[in-house]
UniProtKB/TrEMBL annotation:
<feature type="domain" description="GGDEF">
    <location>
        <begin position="1"/>
        <end position="124"/>
    </location>
</feature>
<dbReference type="GO" id="GO:0052621">
    <property type="term" value="F:diguanylate cyclase activity"/>
</dbReference>
<dbReference type="InterPro" id="IPR050469">
    <property type="entry name" value="Diguanylate_Cyclase"/>
</dbReference>
<dbReference type="InterPro" id="IPR043128">
    <property type="entry name" value="Rev_trsase/Diguanyl_cyclase"/>
</dbReference>
<dbReference type="InterPro" id="IPR029787">
    <property type="entry name" value="Nucleotide_cyclase"/>
</dbReference>
<dbReference type="Pfam" id="PF00990">
    <property type="entry name" value="GGDEF"/>
</dbReference>
<dbReference type="InterPro" id="IPR000160">
    <property type="entry name" value="GGDEF_dom"/>
</dbReference>
<protein>
    <recommendedName>
        <fullName>diguanylate cyclase</fullName>
        <ecNumber>2.7.7.65</ecNumber>
    </recommendedName>
</protein>
Length: 127
């Protein structure tokens, strides 16, 4: 999302928390009942998409990302444009939680390196 520290510095921690809640509500309204959304900490969220292929997952995330509206705070007094970057991977048979999160984090890092507000697939090793 927009850098949380910048929101916190400019508008206070309550505004930063409100933006995170806005993001969670928005995402929950756009995923299936069997999908799972959770906050990992800070500004990081995890979205589990069971029975979704690695080809389809980025398209699903992009649909959410492209429709993400500004956060309206303070009874409509403040509108903050919001974006987010996402790293996507798939759970492979021999994976543990660490390897899955490592690949997703590589995708997130690549999305940020390429200019933010995009979705990238994370892989092990060089690609």
């Amino acid at each position: 999302m927009l850098p949380g520290l910048a929101i916190n510095d400019a508008h206070g921690h309550e505004a930063g928390d409100d933006v995170l809640k806005h993001f969670a509500r928005f995402c929950r309204g756009r995923v299936r009942a069997q999908d799972h959304l959770g906050r990992m900490g800070g500004e990081e969220f995890l979205l589990l998409l069971p029975e979704v292929s690695l080809d389809d997952a980025p398209r699903i995330i992009d649909r959410i990302r492209e429709g993400f509206p500004p956060a309206v705070l303070g009874h409509g007094e403040l509108e903050l444009p919001c974006t987010f970057s996402a790293g996507v991977t798939e759970a492979l048979p021999d994976d543990d939680r660490s390897s899955i999160l490592r690949r997703a984090d590589r995708g997130l890092y690549a999305a940020k390196e390429e200019g933010r507000n995009r979705t990238k697939v994370g892989f092990d090793g060089e690609r």
